[in-house]
Specification:
The chain is mainly alpha-helical. The chain is built from 15 helices and two strands. The protein binds geranylgeranyl diphosphate.
Length: 295
């Protein structure tokens, strides 16, 4: 990882932490316990991949900082809500997330349910309050809603829950992940870009190809890490996919072929950026980060 990318990433992650804090309801506001649990779920943890994608794509299209900051925080709030709900006993039933007890363990199940619900609503409050015209914000809100809902992340999660113990084909597995993980990663890239100057059809196509490649790569790597890393490194329970009898890239292709697929997808992502030249360097480096990450 080159130094300038590392510095940009650290600075952006720090800025996102400050902005998230600012855009969450105050923990002094009633109901304090719910607001405290929302902050617990969102702050001080996570790689902030989605906000980094928002800022990297926004830079390419000269989007204003305030709009990017709100879009980045909105998408991270949706992501945090999905993790809180995913960890609940009715779904993945996990005790560890981002190196801390999951929200339903730290608080209780009802609180975890409400934290997710309230974070989803907060995401839309944050983005809709941006200082930008309704013409610009409305399509961004629609994109985020679509990526989060039943034809996006929630739909993917539904397919995931139904596929436990099932033998999925590679294309069925891909379809599930395009929705469950890919939709929000794609939305992150497009939200950043939409915050800036008008996109040409060619540019939208290129960003779509890039998002599609990193979305799948993210999941392939997630499956490899689940099978090879330990819980302390991951900050969540390792080896859960096999224990839960879930179809994964590793169970379908094996470890070596999964790693090769991730490398191929990373190269596809780089290729998709070729028309943007040097100004897409952060998006290029983020594809590397997604594939080379250790947690
Ligand atoms: C409950 C509606 C609903 C959806 C849940 C995202 C998701 C859908 C479930 C998470 C389960 C999971 C482990 C998915 C694999 C990919 C993924 C999203 C991993 C976690 O994202 P990271 O690695 O997490 O970006 P951090 O903590 O770094 O933000």
């Amino acid at each position: 990882m080159n130094i300038s990318f590392r510095n940009w990433m650290k600075e952006t992650q720090a800025d996102v932490e400050v902005a998230l804090n600012q855009y969450l309801p105050s923990t002094q506001t009633v109901p304090e316990n719910l607001h405290e649990a929302m902050a617990y779920a969102v702050l001080d943890g996570g790689k902030r991949v989605r906000p980094l994608l928002v800022f990297a794509a926004g830079k390419l299209f000269d989007a204003p900082q305030e709009l990017l900051s709100r879009a980045a925080c909105a998408v991270e709030m949706i992501h945090a809500y999905s993790l809180v709900h995913d960890d609940m006993p009715c779904m993945d039933d996990d005790a560890l997330r981002r190196g801390k007890p999951t929200v339903h363990k730290q608080y209780n199940e009802a609180t975890a349910l409400l934290v997710g619900d309230a974070l989803q609503a907060q995401a839309f409050i944050v983005l809709s309050n941006a200082k930008a015209s309704a013409d610009r914000i409305l399509p961004m809100l629609q994109l985020l809603a679509q990526a989060s809902g039943s034809i996006g992340m929630c739909g993917g999660q539904a397919i995931d829950l139904a596929s436990v113990g099932q033998a999925l084909t590679l294309s069925e597995l891909e379809q599930m992940h395009r929705l469950k993980t890919g939709a929000l990663l794609r939305a992150s890239v497009l939200l950043g870009a939409m915050g800036g100057k008008l996109l040409s059809p060619d540019e939208i196509q290129a960003l779509d190809s890039y998002s599609s490649a990193i979305g799948l790569a993210f999941q392939v790597v997630d499956d490899v890490l689940d099978a090879t890393a330990d819980s302390a490194t991951l900050g969540k329970t390792a080896g859960k996919d096999a224990a839960d009898n879930k179809p994964t890239y590793v169970s379908l292709l094996g470890l070596d072929a999964s790693r090769q697929l991730a490398a191929q997808l990373c190269s596809d992502a780089h290729q998709a950026l070729s028309q943007f030249g040097e100004s897409a360097q952060h998006l290029h480096d983020l594809a590397d980060l997604i594939v080379q990450r250790k947690a």
